[in-house]
Sequence to fold (152 residues):
Amino acid sequence: MICPCEKKGETSVVDSRPTEDGTAIRRRRMCVCGERFTTFERIQFRELMVVKKNGRKSAFDRDKLSKSIYIALKKRPIDTGTAEKFISKISRALEELGQNEISTNTIGTMVMEGLKELDPVAYVRFASVYRNFREEQDFVQFVDKLDVSKKS
Fold:
């Protein structure tokens, strides 16, 4: 494994343990320079391709999914462990669909449904980007629909 500071591959594993949900192994590593960092080893069942709205295809990138979810959860009372479980749950659900190609719409819908349960503010944040809100009225209409669904 390459050290993020020295950009050299002279590192050793200091500690290794499974994640809480058992879907990955977390490894603490140390470089000869003394820098410590964490890596994760995960099972990949199949190579998933994401089909974008314009028809382009690209390999599924868990890190990209993770980044978008962490942006939505920024400054929210959700700990890293819970966020990682959520991201793993989405990734597994995508793999369990049994399809090699998955639309961005499918991924976005799964994330939104999960965030709606996990944190309503993160749900609205994610929706604002996913649904491409342009004006204040877009937010108002979206939030109004949320209030109506809670009263029913």
Summary: Helices lie at 62-73, 80-96, 104-118, 120-130, 136-151. The longest strand covers residues 11-18. The chain has two domains: 1-43, 46-151.
